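Thread: Newbie trying to understand structure tokens

Hi all, I'm a second-year student working on a class project, and my supervisor (Dr. K.) asked me to get a predicted structure for one chain before our next meeting. I've only ever worked with sequences, so writing a 3D structure as a token string is new to me. If someone could post the tokens and maybe explain what I'm looking at, I'd be very grateful. Here's the chain:
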Amino acid sequence: MTTVDRPLSVAERTAGWFPSRWGPDDAAGALNEITPATVLAAVSLVRTGRVHDLAHVLHADVPAFPGRTFRSYLTTNAHFVNRRRPDGGAEGWGRNAVNWIVEQITATQQMGTHMDALNHLQVGDRTYNGHRLADVAEEWGTNRLGVDTLPQIVTRGLLLDVAAIRGVDRLQPGDVITVGDAVAALGERTLRPGDAVLFHTGWGGWWGVDDARYSAGEPGPGTVLAEWLAERRVALTGCDTWSYGPVPPEDPAEPFVVPQTLNVRHGVVVLENLRLAEAAADGLREFLLVVSHAKLRGATGAWVTPLAIT
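---
Reply by user tm_fold:
Sure, no problem. This is what the structure looks like when written as tokens:
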């Protein structure tokens, strides 16, 4: 193997990545680009009051990366116990016959429509801002960069309908979205720091229709486009696919390098499994985006329901 062909070490690959532009203790990454002025400008986009729900329904049978599962089941016997209470009755507790049911969910946050935290991906053992897994890993998650450390999101959203730009119903597995595609889909609009850029590829149409096909591969933004977005200081980005970036990848020797680079190097938050077909068909292009997530200590992500408000 020549020196040119030698794989880069982790130290070589991440040289100059750390600390981030926001300092060595930062945990918010590119979400720092969302300022009060950014929020005010985004809110001014609301004209009709219409809300587009960009999330899929989550249940046990949704497409999932191997090894990730979801189970929800009822864990209650209140309908029986309440009848035996001192002030219970034949149909429940109290004169109002109250009863209830609850469920228990066993699952990873890394499935369904979700947001990745900045502890999710690594280069070797290095996370965003250079933390080593040996120093941050706990039994319950990580003591830095968990999804609980990310701020809630209110910003300008831009939907780039790449399928429409290319004149197809959907892109195909391994198709690379380019800077040219993004520029064409943007039209007269320009990116601003703090923006959220969402890509409609049409691939999400297989969700719930042919889940095996949906999970077998995907189109997505290429490495050049990812760097272009980071240079323009976008706060977050996402796709109607189960990851972010083409599968198969541009370089077979670099799987998932696009989300890895965004997450570890640039601190750009990624949304996955977005439901964008209806919004794209409605001509949604620019909107107020609200993404509120559960503050789960040390978790690598959170289920979200992004709302596009016009």
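A couple of things are worth pointing out once you decode it. The radius of gyration is 22 Å. The chain has a mean pLDDT of 96. Feel free to ask follow-ups in this thread.
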